[in-house]
């Protein structure tokens, strides 16, 4: 999703952040009336060209709806299958009482295509599943500063509620109804991990956007993770991380305090950048990301967000009264960050294209910003003791009723999690994924494994299309879909 042009855009954002007077207060003025609040999730149509009918979207629609998500932001480029898939998605959304809207990706669309974009909006505007806000067609984007909004509206033949990913200091904020901030991760203002000199928090981004919006609705981002590791085996080589660690928990708390009109979860199914919260089994094609996505389910993040989404919709600043099922959610990277995989890593071989400036060899750029820890969030109805064992490291915590986060230093070996009360175990489980001191499939994998106690009923796995390019560029043996393979025979596996 990251174009080279974002460099300039982010420099603009950085200077704007610096320009915000210290006394600028966000106050209550930006906090939206609970009744108006909507939550979206970014959905990549670019990797779902393998779907054959509207029913192929039903599981995504049902899951998102049950979580409290109001609409999918359907990210579209200009792939030949785009309309086929949009038709399926709009139909499935209608069948499942969900909403959807178009999000134009300006990595592929050009700002001089305003009329054409307007016509694309018109093509779907009257579909029953189209999201409307204030009775207008809701439309968003990735990038797009400088598009002629009135020309786009005349192409659409009607008024629209336009909430693009314009950037403060770049796009004209007078022309729009609201704006999406994409930068859901702490960064350096130049699309990489923060440095001590250039350290921009997600909240800095919130402030810059709200200052530029002057009270217009803000579409605030929430993301759990960022790690990408494409080498010369693809033309879009890129290899970096943003600090993620406990971000999914801290950001949700930040958003409940902020109370923006709209929130967008980034993302449902962008496997390449590791910020998917949707299942691995959600049908998609492999862009080469299966190397770090295989055996790395994220559904626990989806479950963690549930009480936060309910609290946001109710206008509350705490998820504590919205926990209907007790759970422990945990996540960690599968290997310690110092592990040396240079001899076999995909990014060490060949001549990768670095026109984007996003390609680095070896450990992903920004790797030092990720901590060797196991991250744990407890969702409890009454206080309890959480016991975590990570390899040789063991710690126990007094957890309050409600949501709370803990960290334990990462230990190589098995990962165990338990809840007890009055000395009696209430629930416990051993993760299906050990932390290991070897290079899995030969590569540096800075994606996260996410698990839950109680454990999910089925093991979430990539389908055949989602794993099709696993071996491309690999320089070490790599077994497919290994999760749970070594479970005791008693489980029937
Ligand atoms: C950036 O700032 C945060 C606190 O706002 C701090 O925790 C982090 O260590 C800083 N990062 C760097 C690289 O200095
Ligand atoms: C790719 O470009 C970026 C930005 O210029 C640079 O920092 C990085 O070192 C380059 N990567 C390689 C492998 O040369």
TrEMBL record:
Q: Which UniProt keywords apply?
A: Signal
Q: Pfam families from the xrefs?
A: Glyco_hydro_71 (PF03659)
Q: Which domain of life is it from?
A: Eukaryota
Which is an annotated GO molecular function term of this record?
glucan endo-1,3-alpha-glucosidase activity
Note the CDD domains from the entry: GH71
Q: Which InterPro entries does its entry note?
A: Glyco_hydro_71
Q: What is this protein called?
A: Alpha-1,3-glucanase/mutanase
Q: Which organism is it from?
A: Aspergillus sclerotialis
């Amino acid at each position: 999703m990251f174009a080279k042009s974002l460099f300039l855009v982010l420099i603009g954002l950085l200077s704007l952040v610096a320009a915000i007077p210290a006394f600028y207060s966000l106050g209550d003025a930006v906090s939206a009336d609970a009744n108006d609040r909507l939550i979206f999730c970014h959905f990549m149509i670019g990797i779902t060209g393998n779907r054959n009918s509207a029913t192929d979207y039903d599981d995504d629609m049902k899951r998102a709806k049950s979580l409290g998500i109001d609409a999918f932001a359907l990210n579209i480029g200009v792939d030949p299958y785009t309309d086929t898939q949009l038709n399926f998605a709009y139909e499935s959304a209608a069948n499942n009482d969900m909403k959807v809207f178009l999000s134009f990706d300006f990595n592929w669309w050009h700002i001089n295509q305003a009329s054409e974009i307007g016509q694309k909006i018109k093509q779907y505007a009257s579909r029953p599943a189209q999201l409307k806000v204030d009775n207008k067609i809701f439309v968003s984007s990735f990038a797009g500063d400088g598009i002629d909004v009135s020309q786009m509206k005349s192409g659409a033949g009607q008024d629209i509620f336009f909430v693009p990913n314009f950037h403060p200091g770049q796009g004209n904020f007078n022309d729009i109804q609201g704006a999406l901030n994409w930068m859901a991760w702490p960064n350096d203002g130049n699309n990489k991990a923060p440095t001590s000199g250039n350290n921009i928090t997600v909240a800095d981004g919130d402030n810059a956007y709200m200052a530029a919006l002057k009270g217009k609705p803000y579409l605030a981002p929430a993301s759990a993770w960022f790690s990408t590791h494409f080498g010369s085996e693809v033309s879009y080589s890129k290899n970096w991380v943003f600090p993620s660690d406990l971000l999914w928990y801290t950001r949700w708390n930040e958003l409940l305090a902020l109370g923006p009109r709209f929130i967008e979860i980034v993302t449902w199914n962008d496997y390449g950048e590791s910020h998917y919260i949707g299942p691995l089994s959600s049908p998609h094609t492999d862009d080469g990301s299966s190397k770090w996505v295989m055996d790395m389910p994220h559904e626990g993040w989806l479950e963690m967000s549930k009480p936060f989404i309910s609290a946001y919709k109710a206008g509350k600043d705490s998820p504590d009264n919205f926990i209907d099922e007790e759970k422990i959610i945990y996540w960690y990277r599968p290997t310690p960050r110092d592990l040396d995989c240079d001899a076999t890593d995909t990014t060490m071989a060949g001549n990768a294209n670095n026109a984007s400036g996003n390609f680095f060899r070896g450990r992903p750029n920004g790797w030092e910003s990720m901590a060797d820890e196991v991250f744990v969030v407890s969702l409890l109805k009454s206080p309890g003791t959480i016991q975590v064992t990570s390899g040789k490291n063991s710690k126990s915590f007094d957890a309050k009723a409600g949501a709370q986060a803990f960290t334990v230093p990462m230990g190589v070996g098995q990962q165990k999690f338990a809840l007890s009360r009055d000395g009696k175990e209430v629930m416990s489980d051993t993760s299906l994924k050990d932390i290991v001191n070897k290079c899995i499939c030969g590569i540096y994998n800075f994606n996260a494994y996410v698990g839950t106690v109680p454990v999910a009923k089925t093991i979430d796995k990539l389908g055949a299309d989602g794993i099709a390019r696993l071996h491309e560029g690999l320089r070490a043996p790599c077994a497919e879909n290994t999760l749970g393979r070594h479970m005791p025979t008693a489980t029937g596996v």
